[in-house]
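Changelog excerpt

This revision adds worked examples to the README so contributors can see how folded entries look when concatenated. The first example is reproduced verbatim below.
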Amino acid sequence: MKFFKNIYYNIIKYKFLLSQLVIRDFKIKYKRSVLGVLWSLLYPLLMMAVMALVFSHMFKFSMEGVNYLVYLMSGLVVFNYFSEATNSAMTSITGNSSLINKVYIPKYIFPVAKCLFVGINFVLSLIPLLLIILISGDAAAGTKCYINIYYLLLPFIYVCMFMFTLGVSYILSTIAVFLRDMIYIWGILLTILNYFTPIFYSITILPTWLQNIFKFNPLYLYINATREIVLFSRMPSPLYLLACFLSGFIVMIIGMAVFRKKQNKFIYYL
């Protein structure tokens, strides 16, 4: 556990550098953009509108007694964060090779910076989702969603999701140093994962044996816990919340261990 304590203390020690990396990513992303950070609000809102049009009207997806728009968007925001964060963090080491080769910087800071940067966009994307929760649905049909006390559990669920994403990011960024094709392989795997995560459909339409397999997907845990709160105003069970924490924490520890084992060899491949 000494290594993991060192990571924590070094992140505190290099917090200024970490903040500068996040700020740099913001500047690069919104360089020469007229609307700037406003795109962080408009983009998810426009994407939600497109997805709602496609699935609710063109493909006629619906669920009886459930606000399908909120169901869809609550899954999308979680999956989009995981997808964007892992894609960005995967190239965080190779993309900063010139900096790594010049001065000593704890290498594990770079994946953290990417996950934090995308995390800020994720938090901003929750604002359009909240608007949809407030204005959509029909109280008479039982599809109206309401703000409830269990919303206080959402930060805990999203911290678990962050840990899981960070762990996967450490693994991917390590592999990408030695195998640059991982960038393309991961794109294919994300597409597969998108369909194996109940985002636009209900897991109940699947055979029982397949449902049990899908439930081992940590993204399903975070999405389903979110839906329990925002759609049904129910608190996920303590056992379910424990599963969310353990899935995130264990994957993060594994990712850090893989990264630690290989980080000294990065210099030969950058």
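The second example, added in the same revision:
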Amino acid sequence: MFANRPTWTTERVELLKGHFDAGLSCREIAAAIGVTRNAVIGKLARLELTRGPARAKPRADKTARERSRKSIPRLQYRMLQDVFENEQPPVEEPIASERRCSLFELGNERCRWPIGTPGAEDFCFCGNTPIEGMPYCSGHTRLAYRPGSRQRVVRG
């Protein structure tokens, strides 16, 4: 079959150094020598041959459209800020989940707050109408996105 020949013979190392000094890329050196690009990169690292720091191309300025477009997290933050400003402070009493539903009935138009233990016979989701753009109803949104430190979560 194949004879066990060393990948890096003295001739190949000399070719590698010559092509490297000529400024060829690792891909071009690999093609010329008959080895893989990764083999060339590894051998150059072991020989401690470097070309200095890579020259990063300057970033192109963002277009006005890209600058004006708001990021998703920023929009969610504003939505949550509105919820906290317009709502009463979180109440420690259970939230009435009047439209409980199963996983199969769950959709974008229903609160996705889980109630109970997954796998249990009585496990379900809240099912109330969620706040637009959020996965939970206003009561569960207050619980899920409490500002400040972590606080005890009341399920129900």
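Reviewer comment on example two: The two ends are 70 Å apart (CA to CA). The mean pLDDT is 78.
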